[in-house]
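SECTION: protein entry
WANTED: fold as tokens:
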Amino acid sequence: MGLSDYFELWREMMLSRDPGVADSVTWWQEFFVRFYQAFLEGDRWQQYLRGVGVTLLVTAMALAIGVALGIVVAMVRTAHDQQRPGRRNPLLGVINLLCKIYVTVIRGTPMMVQIMIMGMVIFSSSRNYTMVGALTLGINSGAYVAEIIRGGLMSLDVGQSEAGRSLGLGYLDTMRFIVIPQAFKAILPSLGNEFIILLKDTSLISIIGGQELVYFAENIVNRTFEAMFPLVGSACIYLVLVLIFTWLQGKLERRLRQSDRR
């Protein structure tokens, strides 16, 4: 006899005594049984934990891809924009055009459509939909990270780059040791927001079969035929994760401000 059977027996006992009490028991019975089926029965809470682990892994992979792409695209576009008149590099112009097309296309199309194209067209023969989703999220994030980093680089005075060149540093070393460390402090809030958006957007990969938090919540919905607790529970988990990362971001920003004062 399952837990719901015990509650049904208890409800019948209460009904034979007091119908008013039976109504309240029915409400609490339904509430607890649905909660039990969504989180406790069959150790289903472990599926939520597994979903959280996959969600964090996908977010980390997508962020790494996005930051790598963003840095490359931002450096190319910044180098192109900072060329002196009359000294234009044709090859750099072609690469800059490709970067602009990449940023425009990615930012101009919905992420869901991009995920469906990657999962159902480009990688239609693949069965590792989670990794396909992580790759798509990384490519999408790269376009936004590129604009964030480019804005930070362009906000610095050109004299910073010229000072690095006067010290005998090449373009890459100047960006690595002088420009990027200063720009990082300015773009940290925007990068933090992009990370939070990326964390929440991992839920979209479930449309192609990517196994993350929403995927496992939907599986539980299909078994219990009750959508409220699994979906609300997954939303609360996302909220807790966002609050934790927002707190960590604020702590890092305060530490950087304190280092500037010193």
